[in-house]
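Re: the 605-residue chain
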Amino acid sequence: MLRANSLLARERMKPLAIAVACVLVGWLLSAVLPAYFVFLGTTAIVAMISLLGLGIVTGSAGMMALCQLSFAAVGAWAVSWLNSVDAPGGLVVWLPLGGLAAAAAGVVVGLPALRLRGVNLAVVTLGFAAAADLTLGKIQFPGTQTGIQVARPDLFPGDRRYFLFAVIVLALCSLLVHYLQASRWGSGWKFVAFSERGTASAGTSVTVTKLTAFGAGAFLAGVGGGLLSGQVGLVYPSSFTTIQSLALYVLAIVSGSYLIDMAVLGGILWVLVPELLKRFGISQDWGFVIFGALGIQSLTTGSNLGADLRAMWWRRTQRRRKSAEAPAAADAARAPAVPDAGTKVPAATSQTSAVPAAVRRPTSSAVSGAGALLSVRGLSVTFGHVTALSEVDLDLTEGSVTGLMGPNGAGKSTMVDALAGFLPQHQGTIQLAGQSLNGLSPMDRARLGIRRTFQQDRVPPTLSVGAYVRFIARGQASDERVEELLRFFNCPPPSTQLARVDVGTRRLIEVAANMAASPRLLLLDEPAAGLSHEEHVSFAEQLVQLPDRFGTTLLLIEHDLDMVRSVCNDLVVLNFGEVIASGQRDDVLANPQVMTAYMGELEVS
């Protein structure tokens, strides 16, 4: 335990150690680089900080924002104004204030992102960039007409010292991004980019998640703009043109600036490409053409420089690890096999195979006498002239496992969507433990204790297993509980990246994550899809333990009759949006009407 805590503390201190090392490198470079390259280095750092912010909006949250330098202009304008009125604190205080001003602008610009996506959102942000460009050309920056230059901090006079100051600001911004990405906010940004429905069903506000991404990205751009104002002294609109914002966005895509080290690489490219063109006597405007060509290549191939470099590094690390482990594996193969008396069977294996599922099946809700957890009366859903659900009644007793069956198109998924809050325009009433859910959003219902899984894969591959489970649990699960649930469902350890997990296992992780939130009711929409036969059997034995072990009621949509028979005591069967049978499992499955609807005429003739 002490060793594990020591490793965890060391891992948490690693980003801080890297930041300190970068500052030391910056101090060395400030002393040895020629003056011209020191100035270029500061310009690169300004771009790096803006790219870090763009990496949040575009790389993590998946929204197209073409106005990053407009937010930088807001930060530069705020710093210039604070300097012109001789506000206290100096640039050290003005930088975060300029970032906050830019963040406020980012939230306002981000409001259309709540309804717009893709190209439509890009057009709105591009329009803001063009409007900001024209506005700055008319009003200019404070101090430019009077010649009042932005004062640098007293401890960092001159270009060399100011370069070191810029390195320190970059290190602090990188730490901020690192800890934000590792927080619930960061998980929310990655989740909303992958699935807004999944985000809402986890009890997280999609609105707040998107706006925080825009605000955080704009804050960093504002800090970068303020840093630029201290570098040049007098700021002019030519530093924040629309075409430069477009080029910066393309560079963010090319470099993969959602990765901190790739944002640094992108900032270097931002000054390196134009400088090389200048050295060869070529107009620097061709740099935009080069960035555009790289962007087209990145978008058409679906890859970026950051991801490619990370993949190369990972493959190299794996080869080294295998080479290091090969001698030990060979020695182990030559050694005689001696059973270890202290070896224990993993908790998940011992718990799911020791007792047959049929013995541990929950008591039928029809005879349990327990209180009703979910009560549905007269639930109807129509899409135009099509009736998906018609006057459906449903009662789920607390601690029961109920199966929802029916042929394709019977209305099962519509039923789950209505219960989870994704179809608010339904008719009828839905109550959870006597509390009406009518009119409540999916987020509100999730927070009241209704969780769901999806037929489609809604597990974002950009997260680790542990980060995903903790996000779904909304801080309600300790590390010990997370590890317990992952073992219970035979899932990979928390540090595993979801991108390296197969679809079937991701479904198990999705169930484990929702159970970590301690839901009162869990709606499982074909959770066993993609599992092998052995995994089906194991998963069924795990499901029947959930009510007694974790106090969760289950509503299971499943086509696999073997799983339905082994897990559920009660069944509800839909056909053409109507309930044709409900009650205890054996009685429902023996119903001729169910056989006809579910298995077809040939099965019962």
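Strands lie at 372-383, 386-397, 401-405, 427-432, 435-436, 450-452, 521-525, 553-557, 570-575, 578-584.
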